[in-house]
Amino acid sequence: MGSRIIYIYLLGSWQKPTAGLGAAAAIDPRPSQHNFSTVAVVPVSDDVPLTAFTYELYHSLCAIGPTVRLTSDVIRKLLGLTIMDPNNEYRLSSWLAQQEDKHKVALYQCDPSLTQWTQRCIRQADCILIVALGDKQPSIGRIEKEIERLAIRTQKELVLLRREGGPNPSGTVHWLNMRSWVSQHHHVRCPHRMFTRKSQYRIVSIQLLLCIEIVYAYVLAF
After folding, report:
1. Structural domain count, the chain
2. Cβ-based neighbours of 54, under 8 Å, separated by 6 or more
3. Domain assignment of residue 169, yes or no
4. In angstroms, rounded to a whole number, what is the distance separating the alpha carbons of residues 16 and 81?
5. How many whole angstroms separate alpha carbon 72 and alpha carbon 53?
6. DSSP β-bridge partners for residue 67
7. Which of 3, 53, 121, 207 could pair covalently with 108 via S-S, beta carbons 3.0-4.6 A apart?
């Protein structure tokens, strides 16, 4: 998957712009000025396979360093349904800080709408990935309209997904012209499994196992 291009960039390596999406990326060993450890993943529209994409990115990042994927569902399963309430702010902030300390990268998956969790993800991030389907009509998502207000100085990058075997990217300039705040963009060729219902069922199963692992690590820490 083309997410290799993204994770190399996120971890501070320089990506040559001529590298192909389907081939191994050509990497310059010189370190980049960027080294992101907290990344928010934001969907442009409801039809973006956000969970599947985040899992693909998470899997790639795990290959080169400890990574955690955090969602509102995961947080509520681990810390309780009322964890987002204002009186639990200190507890949630402390727990998230622990996760960031234990992992090289923390992936914050936003909700489809501008919930309390989504706003926290955006404020928490060193880098915000704005994910869209590249074969759709260019548009600005509901959450995007609030990003500049919540994270003016945060790095923002556009990720355009396309199906494996589909047509080559086109119309990128229209996506970019709508987003003066975007500093980088990526074309990601996605495997078919990202768009299948079977994949979503598998993701739910993996997510439950991930929750168990995090709880176990949390208990051992005390």
Report:
1. 1
2. 41, 69, 107, 109
3. yes
4. 45
5. 16
6. 105
7. 121
Report the CATH number at residue 57: 3.40.50.300
List, in sequence order, the alpha helices (H) in the chain. 3-10, 50-62, 72-79, 89-102, 116-124, 144-150, 172-177, 197-220
pTM across the whole model:
0.77
In a domain, 157, yes or no: yes
Q: pLDDT for 136-193, tens place per residue?
A: 999 999 999 899 889 988 999 999 998 887 777 788 999 999 998 899 898 888 877 7
**Residue 13, in any domain of the structure:** no
Q: What is the pLDDT of residues 120-137, one digit of tens each?
A: 999 999 999 999 999 899
If you count them, how many residues does the chain have? 222
Q: Is residue 195 one of the residues assigned to a domain?
A: yes
Listed in sequence order, the residues at least 6 apart from 104 whose beta carbon sits closer than 8 Å to its beta carbon are 11, 37, 61, 64, 65, 66, 67
Answer yes or no: are the C-beta atoms of 53 and 61 closer than 8 Å: no
CB-based contact 72:115 (threshold 8 Å): yes
Within 13 Å of residue 197, how many CA atoms lie on the same side as its CB? 0
- Which range marks the domain in which residue 171 is found? 36-220
d(CA 12, CA 162): 25
